[in-house]
Automatic annotation (TrEMBL):
InterPro entries reported in the protein's UniProt record: DUF4996, Galactose-bd-like_sf, PLC-like_Pdiesterase_TIM-brl
Biological source species: Saccharopolyspora endophytica
DUF4996 domain segment(s): 58-156
Xref: Gene3D superfamilies: Galactose-binding domain-like, Phosphatidylinositol (PI) phosphodiesterase
Listed name of the protein: DUF4996 domain-containing protein
């Protein structure tokens, strides 16, 4: 707390059971107003705790079963309510209740993964803010958003184009979505070994992964063919945006039309579905124009990853 004093607020999540211990640390460090306690105890229990110190900041979590507690706190009100919903028909996300919350408190919505705010996720926001952050602000009155994409949210709030988030200016970055494989079907555009896990009829497993549209259920021995159109000649860093929860999480080979092949271990991004990240694969020279490549999943390391896109950055 001394390290963040005067610099940040701390979300004291999952700590209601040790709130007194946390409070003593905050009091000793002069940072009571830097910590946001949160939980879903009874109204009286939360009110009693808030009454012990006027500096305590408390947020009440509401779901389907306790949406009716809004407006029933005696005395001082929670500074915010975390509104958790997996359906747009849930009582806690209806306009009248959100309006009631805003009379005394803020509306906090968590977009880190699905079912915390229906399908409004960080990953969906990267594709289109109307599928995530913009929707929870404009349609559900969020005044506080919990996110793992802090820089991305800042970029969007400042009017940035999310389709160009984490891209270089101009035409220096080109992306190929993993689902946009070459045409031709099985044995031509791809080779897929397992039944489609996402409800489709055969073909590459393309799934909604917490809002990201990604190639999933990857199997050893599978391959996918792609093409990329590069507007400028030069040295490019080739990366893959993916999610994995182990190391190594698999090994892929990139086979290029000139006959060269690079093999790359997939690293750990900390979570198979909720932590996509760019991983550098290789740097190579390309002439301007169209280039084809095949991504093969090696047999020697069991694959456990979801693949979102490939990114080509001109150095």
């Amino acid at each position: 707390m001394l390290a963040v004093k005067g610099r940040a607020m701390v979300n004291l999540d999952k700590g209601w059971g040790i709130r007194e211990d946390m409070y003593r640390v905050l009091r000793a460090t002069g940072t009571v107003d830097h910590g946001l306690f949160k939980g879903s105890p009874t109204v009286q229990e939360a009110a009693d705790f808030m009454a012990t110190d006027p500096e305590i900041l408390y947020m009440h979590i509401i779901k389907d079963e306790n949406a009716d507690v809004v407006g029933t706190f005696p005395g001082r009100q929670p500074v915010a309510y975390e509104v958790v919903f997996d359906q747009l028909t849930d009582p806690q996300v209806q306009p009248a209740l959100l309006d009631r919350i805003q009379q005394d408190s803020r509306v906090w919505i968590n977009t880190m993964w699905q079912d915390l705010a229906a399908t409004y996720t960080d990953e969906a926001s990267r594709r289109d803010p109307q599928l995530g952050w913009q929707a929870v602000v404009e349609e559900h009155d969020a005044s506080m958003i919990q996110t793992d994409e802090i820089e991305g949210l800042h970029h969007w709030r400042n009017g940035g184009d999310m389709s160009r988030w984490e891209a270089q200016p101009g035409d220096r970055t080109v992306r190929v979505q993993a689902e946009d494989h070459a045409p031709g079907g099985e044995g031509v555009g791809y080779h897929d070994l397992d039944p489609n896990t996402c409800g489709g009829e055969g073909g590459v497993d393309v799934c909604d992964v917490e809002g990201a549209i990604a190639v999933s259920s990857v199997q050893s021995g599978e391959w996918i063919k792609y093409s990329v159109d590069l507007p400028r000649s030069g040295e490019y860093e080739v990366s893959a945006r993916l999610a994995s929860d182990g190391a190594p999480a698999g090994r892929i080979a990139l086979e290029w039309a000139d006959g060269t092949t690079g093999r790359h271990d997939i690293g750990n991004t900390t979570h198979l579905t909720r932590a996509f990240d760019l991983q550098p694969l290789e740097t190579r020279h390309f002439e301007a124009g169209r280039h084809e490549f095949v991504v093969k999943v090696d047999d020697d390391v069991a694959p456990r990853f979801n693949l979102d896109l490939f990114q080509f950055d001109l150095r």
